[in-house]
């Protein structure tokens, strides 16, 4: 295995006929110092398994392989996977799977407790994170690099502009926090947007107890579908009967002016249970 520097990355891109940039939302991480920082902040141990989605040219993969017992890397682009194999040099503790992480059975792939540590492709960061939390219980937490705006949505507080259904969806399953910024200069080519590191830890149990997790999260999504509306109007716009909405919200003190972004998980769980009755 060899560490990926900007010159090595440029050579790989040239030899494999790859063009970085908007290709599958990838901007290749090529700064060894940033890689070391990620592994250090993630506190990777020698006895654990790591899932990496979007390994690209393997800059982070190599460092993870040196620190962890097992690394499972999922790469969408078959040609990029070929370049990755060259970089890894047949490392015995790395398994490269070529496929779409939004479609393949990640739960079957990860047959043991693991963590997600990755520079997530910008165009699938949020749906992938939600899929991992919803469908891959083996993932106990991790550290991911995402677009700054996305990270702010994931970790937003109530009554802020970034707070939305995704904030609640992630908070339902995990505790998440932004732990650092990442400069544009560490990527090839540099992206137009800033990036952040988000650390998350899966909760032992969901943050609130509801009769059906999937239905509850779908309900939250409907509540935020019309952001400029009050909660009552948003729910009615989402197909709920006016009488049901008013009969459910009035007894629990949700008035006509309350907006979805003012409620936390506990309050949403109360609304959901009241309407479910």
Structural account:
The protein has 277 residues and is of the alpha/beta class. It has twelve helices and nine strands. The chain has helices spanning 6-15, 32-42, 59-67, 78-88, 106-109, 125-135, 148-154, 165-173, 213-223, 231-237, 242-249, 265-276, and strands at residues 28-29, 49-53, 70-75, 94-98, 114-119, 139-147, 174-182, 187-188, 195-202. The strands form two sheets. A seven-stranded mixed β-sheet has the order 4-3-2-5-6-9-7, with helices on both faces. Helix 3 links the parallel strand 2 (49-53) and strand 3 (70-75).
How does the SSE layout of this entry go?
Layout: H1 6-15, E1 28-29, H2 32-42, E2 49-53, H3 59-67, E3 70-75, H4 78-88, E4 94-98, H5 106-109, E5 114-119, H6 125-135, E6 139-147, H7 148-154, H8 165-173, E7 174-182, E8 187-188, E9 195-202, H9 213-223, H10 231-237, H11 242-249, H12 265-276
Parallel strand pairs: 2-3, 2-5, 3-4, 5-6
Antiparallel strand pairs: 1-8, 6-9, 7-9
Helix pairs in contact: 2-3, 6-8, 8-9
Cα separation of the termini: 59 Å
Helix content: 25-40%
Largest sheet: 7 strands, mixed
Order the strands across the largest sheet as they lie in space: 4-3-2-5-6-9-7
Helix/strand-derived category reads: alpha/beta
């Amino acid at each position: 295995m060899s560490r990926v520097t900007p010159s090595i990355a440029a050579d790989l891109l040239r030899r494999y006929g790859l063009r970085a940039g908007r290709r599958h939302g990838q901007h290749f991480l090529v700064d060894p110092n940033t890689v070391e920082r990620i592994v250090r902040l993630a506190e990777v141990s020698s006895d654990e398994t790591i899932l990496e989605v979007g390994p690209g040219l393997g800059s982070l993969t190599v460092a993870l392989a040196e620190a962890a017992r097992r690394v499972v890397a999922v790469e969408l682009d078959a040609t990029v996977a070929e370049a990755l194999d060259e970089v890894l040099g047949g490392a015995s503790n790395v398994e490269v799977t070529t496929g779409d992480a939004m479609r393949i059975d990640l739960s079957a792939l990860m047959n043991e407790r693991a963590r997600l540590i990755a520079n997530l492709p910008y165009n699938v960061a949020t749906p992938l994170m939600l899929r991992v939390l919803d469908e891959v219980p083996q993932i106990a937490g991790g550290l991911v690099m995402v677009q700054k705006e996305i990270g702010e949505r994931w970790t937003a507080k109530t009554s802020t502009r970034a707070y939305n259904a995704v904030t609640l969806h992630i908070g339902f399953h995990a505790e998440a926090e932004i732990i650092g910024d990442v400069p544009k200069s560490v990527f090839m080519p540099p992206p137009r947007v800033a990036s952040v590191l988000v650390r998350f830890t899966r909760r032992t149990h969901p943050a609130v107890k509801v009769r059906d997790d999937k239905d509850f999260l779908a309900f939250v999504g409907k509540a935020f579908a019309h952001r400029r509306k009050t909660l009552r109007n948003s729910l009615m716009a989402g197909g709920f009967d006016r009488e049901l909405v008013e009969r459910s919200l009035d007894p629990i003190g949700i008035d006509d002016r309350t907006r979805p972004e003012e409620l936390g998980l506990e309050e949403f769980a109360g609304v959901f249970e009241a309407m479910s009755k």
